[in-house]
Amino acid sequence: MRKSIIKITAAALLAFAALPLSAKPKFRTVDQIKKAKTIKIAVFSDKKPFGYVDEYGKYQGYDVYFAERIAKDLGVKVKYVPVEAAARVEVLQTGKVDLVLANFTVTPERAEKVDFALPYMKCALGVVSNETKDYITDVEQLKGKTLIISKGTTAETFFTNNYPEVNLLKFDQYSEAYNALLDGRGVGLSTDNTEVLAWAIENPGFAVGIDSLGSLDTIAPAVTKGNESLLKWLNDEIVTLGKENFFHADYEATLRAVYGANSDADALVVEGGKL
Prior knowledge:
- By secondary structure, this protein is an alpha/beta fold.
- It has helices spanning 2-23, 30-36, 62-74, 88-93, 108-111, 154-162, 174-182, 193-202, 228-242, 246-254, 256-259; strands at residues 38-43, 46-47, 51-53, 59-60, 77-82, 99-100, 114-116, 121-130, 146-150, 167-171, 188-192, 206-219, 222-224.
- It has 11 helices and 13 strands.
């Protein structure tokens, strides 16, 4: 009896010891990425003007402009992986991508699961609605009504924690969320103010009645937890790019036409990782 117990215990210990190996985060170092000659970057495919696929099937936007420069400076090609907001952590933890550039707002909860590099954008939440019907200019107007949001976003967390009286209609994709707003399935839609402002400009009849809600947040690249090699390279890259005002150039190339000639790039852009 004693021998069988010892055997079972030993087998259990061996099985338990194997668990951390399979649970270890999967990631590639900078050297491994260079050797493979390809970096896999997760971006949005439907969040214009930050990450989207144009009519020719090509990725475009503020995040994509940055991704192209990263690949160039690494001396590799970039493979874009479309991602939904709620899956941004998962694609890193499972090794599907090396890097996430998808309007990833830095929060303490997320920082426990991924490693954020220095920021390159800043934003707060905004609410866009139909300006002739149920126009929302104050968050109190949303109580008891339906607000459209995307899953896994800071908007979902903010309203869940602070305004439980607001009914949240949740979607996986931003395109689905905006279609719901156009169809009148909610009185408004909330996400980053930079994004709703851009959407409202391109969709007559809608306006951003709340342009700054919650705290001022930063947006940064994210890598798999523990990938110190890529994290350090990205931080050095962001500091270096800041010296040439790269992100202002990014704004001019991808956002100026959307926000207008009189828009203030400094309201969004972060250079060199410094607020």
